[in-house]
Amino acid sequence: MQKKTVYLAGKITGDPFYRSKFYEAQKKLEEGGFIVVNPALLPSEGFPLHAAEITGFISSLNGDAAGGSAKNRCAGSTGF
Question: Is the pTM of this model over 0.70?
Fold first, then answer.
């Protein structure tokens, strides 16, 4: 069975602990069999939202992602 790719969404700006939160979420998703695109590990120049659309799934950390409603309209939820 082919693994599904998921874009991990959550608040980064203003959260000094975002790296550890994203890391823990990434580990949990990977243990669940997903390939994870973790924006906390991407270049500081950013990552265009339309690129996340190719994953087909977005997992939000505690629903606190800025623009989360727009992201959730673009893709389905993983249930994590």
Answer: no
